[in-house]
Amino acid sequence: MREASRYFPFIGLMVLLVGVIGRAIYPSVYLLAALPVTAVMWGMYAVFHTAELKSLLSSRTARYGAGSTFSVVLVIGILVFVAILTDGHNQRFDVTAGGRNSLARQTVNILKNLDKDVAVTGFFQGVAGEQYQAEELFKQYAQVSKRFRYELIDPDLKPSFARAAGITQYGSVLVACGDEQEIVTRLDEEKLTNALLRVTRPGRKKIYFLTGHGERNLLDTEKDGYRQAAELLKRQNYIVESLLLLRTGEVPEDAAVLVVAGPMKDPEPLELEAMTGYLARGGKVLFLIDPEPLDRLATWFEQYGVVLKNDMVVDKMSRLYGGQDLSPIVADYEPHPITRELVGLATFFPMARSVGVVDGMPAGVEARVLMRTSRNSWAETDLDALIGGNAALEPEDLAGPVPLAVVGSLKMVKNDGATTRLAESSKKQTGRFEVVGDSDFASNANLELQANSDLFLNSIAWLAEEGDLVSIRPKDEHMQPLTLSLIQGRIIFWFPVVMMPLAVLVIGFLVVWRRRKMG
Amino acid sequence: MFDFWPIFKRETKVYYTSPIAYTISFIFLTIAGYFYFSNVVYYSQLSMNAAGNPYLTGLNTIDLILVPWFGPLELVILLMLPLLTMRLFSEEKKSGAFELLFSYPVQDLAVLLGKYLAGLFVFVLMVIPTGLYFLILQGDGLFEPGVLFSGYLGLLLSGAAFIAFGIFISSLTENQIVAALITFGGLFMFWIVGWSARLADPPVNHVLGYLSLLNHSSDFYRGVINTSDLAYYLCFIFLFLFLTLRSLDSKRWRG
Question: Is the CB of B29 less than 8 angstroms away from the CB of A501?
Fold first, then answer.
């Protein structure tokens, strides 16, 4: 025991360190047990080596030891000071060619001009790679502007906090400035900067939902209602209201977007006129049209190059995803700001109709298909057969891939008849619309499933935010594909993996062997 | 102070006339070469898939070849450098040449520097040849020189830090195996202290994160040179070299 106790001081020190650091990390009472254990260790050492300790303490050794310890403590103190200093005030140098680790010029400008405090909270799960990247991004923002504060919270460790903030997905980021707030998912620099812009600008944009034709109800919490959609918009800093166009006759001036969600009856001619006027003066409309017979609306759409047929999309692929034949899934998106981040994600549309474009676009309009269903789907026109359960692809049906949504914008027509897109730098707005052949995808039952909410929000955002937001080109644009030739493939194996190490081994062997021979 | 040169020469000679340096270099180069090969092949497969998919972004050599090469290699050297440093003082203590060493009219600091720089020299000589890997494919302009520079800087600083820690532990014991084990254990603790930072609340989590060796190298591998990271490494190296001096000094008055 006496021999073993020689090591006790060291062991005691280790236990103490583990206890202290552990206690700092994890507030468990049991870690405090380190203290008595350390005391016991040191005590036992003292007991077994009393004589040595006594002579040690009074000896020259003790004096030198004390002096040495003091200098160590001093040096550690200085280093801690240096560490704190350099940690707080540091300079980063981005040595990449494309500046991919730096913020875009627009972001830096916006940050420099921030005149209000912004609090950003990232809700990431565990020690994910996402959290690390988000933190890197936040750090860069914080370095530019002191008004940018950030915090990272694990929603699993603080669920009530996350819920109160309205977070529904891991990887969400809450951007808040005063009362204004917004939630960003799938964080990247562009979205964060735009969220910054939106929460710090005065005033909120208004989204009107058309009523009077049996459209989705914003207050309805049943599975077909749109309460969640309304809440989602409000969390994104929009004001949401209903609009009885029949009564008002005109779309209000302050409407950023008009949403027509699932009408069961045709709109009246005066309403259609009001919408035409609204679009002409730069308004934005989102049409979510279910497979109801709406002939007046379909005719009205023709002037915008949109084709609305009386059909219903059948998609046998949906069964693979756990859906049904009448809930087409879209996994194939045309390149467009609305769908850019949806690549690889699925959206599904229970009971949808086809929405296509005409072959010859009318003057003044530019419209194109945004999404299509799979090749194995088709748009069934024989609705009786559908109800009977024996629909099949007939020649009059539209074969897949079936277009499910169209986006379009109005062009300015010059006096000489030539059409031109309104210049980007002009402050005047161009009318925009999006027509989707279903409104169920955004109902309470379906909104939070798959990427439906992203599609909904991105559509509103694209419509509402024309010209206001910045577009930051993704830094990864400079792609460097590599195709290895056969020779290259061979070289990169044989040379690094075999030849170089072997060369070292051979040299070593020669040197050592020759020494042995001579010695 | 420049008396370190004879010590340096002697230590380096010992390393290179015995199997140590060659064995470690051989193993390191094999692993490094294999990582490089495997990353590049994977990258070229991704490139082929990307050709048909216009939506695939993020195909760049930094994220997909360099970072996953430097990162794991740091762990590899964390495991291997203790084997290099374990003999630096322990060997002499064991053989009894230790006292002899300090009876020479040479300062402690010179001895320390000579041994430290010898270890560093072996390490650097082991790592530099890997630069050839990148030259092979540089015809396509694949690898950004700036990022290669910062990546190697990070790896070399990490190694310099590991060696400083290793030499300190070596000065504490005469048993080489124990020295290697404690060095490895200590370095590993510094490495993972960053993980536990997630569990703690501020300001503790910031302190723990700062202490972590891993947190300070990752920026270098991505192409960011951060003065705070540089300062960390310099402080780390200085601290453990200083502690080694204290430890050597204490032999004098330990009696």
Answer: yes
**What is the layout of strands, in order, in the sheet containing A284-288?**
A238-243, A205-210, A255-261, A284-288, A432-436, A403-410, A365-372, A332-333
Answer yes or no: do A71 and B246 touch at CB < 8 A: yes
Kindly determine whether residue B227 and residue A507, on different chains, have CB atoms separated by under 8 Å: no
Question: Is A477 close to B57, i.e. CB distance below 8 A?
Answer: yes
Mutation target vs B (from A94, A138, A140, A494; most B CBs, 10 A cutoff): A94
Considering only CB atoms, B210 lies closest to which of A87, A484, A493, namely: A87
- For B248, name the nearest residue in chain A, comparing CA atoms only: A68
Min Cα–Cα distance to chain B from A67, Å: 10
Q: For testing the chain A interface, which of B23, B35, B48, B199 should be mutated: the one with the most A CBs within 10 Å?
A: B199
B61 near B134, Cβ under 8 Å? no
Q: Which of B22, B51, B246 sits opposite A508 (nearest CB)?
A: B22
A436 by DSSP, 3-state: which? strand
Nearest residue, CB atoms, B16 vs list A479, A495, A511: A511
Query: A344: closest CA among A357, A363, A335, A331?
Result: A331
Interatomic CA distance for residues A452 and A342, integer angstroms: 10
pLDDT digits (tens, 9 = 90+) for A390-447: 777 777 788 878 899 999 988 755 444 444 444 333 446 788 999 999 999 999 988 8
Spatial contact of B216 and B194, defined as CB atoms under 8 Å apart: no
Q: Which of B13, B169, B228 should one mutate to test binding to chain A, selecting the residue with the greatest count of A CBs within 10 A?
A: B228
CB contact under 8 A, B37 and A493: yes
Query: Tens digit of pLDDT per residue, chain A (519 long)?
Result: 677 777 777 778 888 877 877 776 666 767 777 778 888 888 888 777 777 777 767 766 677 777 788 888 889 999 988 888 887 777 788 888 767 778 887 788 888 888 888 999 888 876 556 777 788 788 889 888 888 988 888 888 788 888 888 787 888 899 988 888 888 888 888 888 888 888 887 778 899 999 999 999 999 889 889 999 998 888 778 899 999 998 888 999 889 999 999 999 999 999 999 999 999 888 899 999 999 889 999 999 999 999 998 888 888 777 766 667 788 888 788 888 888 778 778 888 988 999 999 888 888 888 999 999 888 888 888 777 777 777 777 777 888 788 999 999 887 554 444 444 443 334 467 889 999 999 999 999 888 887 888 889 889 988 887 656 666 665 555 567 777 778 888 888 888 899 999 999 999 988 888 888 876
Nearest CA in chain A to B250: A65
B224 and A83 within 8 Å at the Cβ level: the answer is no
Angle at the Cα of A221 from the Cα atoms of A220 and A223, rounded to 5 degrees: 105
What is the torsion angle, in degrees rounded to the nearest 10, for the CA atoms of residue B71, residue B76, residue B82 and residue B83?
-160
Q: Which residues in A lie closer than 8 A to residue B26 (C-beta atoms)? A: 501, 504-505, 508
Shortest CA distance from B35: residue in chain A: A497
pLDDT digits (tens, 9 = 90+) for A133-155: 788 788 889 888 888 988 888 88
**Hey, is A380 helix, strand or coil?**
strand
